[in-house]
């Protein structure tokens, strides 16, 4: 079984964020980590590898420094590393990103693709399902449980306070949530090995199925009007009630907003 895991290098928000003049993130100036949901998806793939002897390939699109998260993935147990990086691919929104990743995946053999549910630098949850749409394969989003049996992925898909159980014929794509798995630590031996392993790097010329109009900033229909790391908060609602009335008011608000 061959598994592809898409991982993204994202800004470590604990260290602050920085923007370019055009409103896009200045990724080169920020500390970076592996996207948390992607790391969960990687762990799910590694557990399938432990169980079935699967081959796990990690795929990332980004700046050359994104090799750091690929080597981290290798140190956790992945087998192959591929980076898609080229100047014409920069500035991509979710559409251009998913088009580019799908073009890269078409160069590979796969039975299962795993992505994180969403990236913490965008929170759109669009790239995984869009990749599946480009490839014409089924997708299970919000995957909280995953097993493989007789060529099918048996998944639990999170839904409010319960779940859907789905049986999907492979090849298919699953997007991972944190309930799916607890990521393992890197092993000391593989940390050293990771820096000696080659990272395959693909540019625009290596993606023959990618159309020019679907890549990079010019191929991105999403246009950023303004970006800021400061979120303006509303004034809220002030009430002057006695304790008993306050409890009644709060319970009514929580119920009305479907919080409880």
Please tell me about this protein's structure.
There is one protein chain. The protein is α/β, with parallel strands linked by helices. The protein has a single domain (2-232), classed as HUPs (Rossmann fold, 3-Layer(aba) Sandwich). Helix content is 27%, strand content 24%. The chain has six helices and eleven strands. Strands 9-8-7-10-6-1-4-5-11 form a nine-stranded mixed sheet, sandwiched between helices. It has a two-stranded antiparallel ribbon with strand order 2-3. A hairpin with a 2-residue loop joins β8 (152-159) and β9. The longest helix is centred in the first third of the chain and has 17 residues, at 36-52.
Query: What is the name of the CATH superfamily?
Result: HUPs
Characterize the largest beta sheet: strand count, sense, and whether it forms a barrel: 9 strands, mixed
- Give the name of the CATH architecture: 3-Layer(aba) Sandwich
- Number of H- or I-type helical stretches: 6
Instruction: List the uncertain runs.
Output: none
Question: Span between N and C termini?
Answer: 43 Å
Shape: globular
